[in-house]
Predict the structure.
Amino acid sequence: MTDYVLSDATRAKFKKISTASIATALYKRGLRNQFIQGVVPVSPKAETMVGQAFTLRYIPAREDRNPITVFRNANHPQRVAVETCPAGHVLVMDARKDARAATAGSILITRLALRGAAGVVSDGGFRDAEGIGALDMPAYYSKPSAPTNLTLHEALDINVPISCGDVAVFPGDVLVGDRDGVMVIPAHLADELADECAEMESYEDFVLEQVKGGEQIIGLYPRTKEEYEQRYADWRVQNNR
């Protein structure tokens, strides 16, 4: 879907950027629906998740197509997705926001983590959630769900455009996840957003410091008073920002 390759430099910038800042930067560009709705971290991580999307699409299961024996098929899309998601990418699953059955469990997600994935996001459920939460790799889901995916889901397509939490996700889009949730960044905007949001984070750190010191918000946030221009410039020098 895209020839874009996330650079180490841009990845490093996004590691220090909040989903809130990304949401604001995308809003300025007219993109208002890039926050994946209804997903939360399985277990909060200290490090921000950053990676390009590798997708898996589920459709509603039909009983005659999804007996337990389908897992014997070496080409089963769920298993193939886990074994082919590139290192540094995020496996994103479209479960139609239906968490009544799991989209994966701890064994598959552990394998994904050991293969070097940057994370996993599902708008459905995970089984063995405690084991997934113990991994270093970030994981996001709707909620725990014990039933196997075959109960309600059929894994069908790999690395095609999908919906996840009401957001259109195209292969190669950049996903950034923190404790608030996950933002989807169109690939062609990733580099410029990383630079813009790094500046936003810097100024907001300055603002928070000023507010904690007793400053009022008006004129400071957003910055409309000239007095704060010089004050911020001095703060950047002092803090090497």
Remarks:
- DSSP finds seven helices and twelve strands in the chain.
- The mean pLDDT is 96.
- The first helix runs from residue 8 to 14.
- Residues 70 and 76 are 7 Å apart (CA to CA).
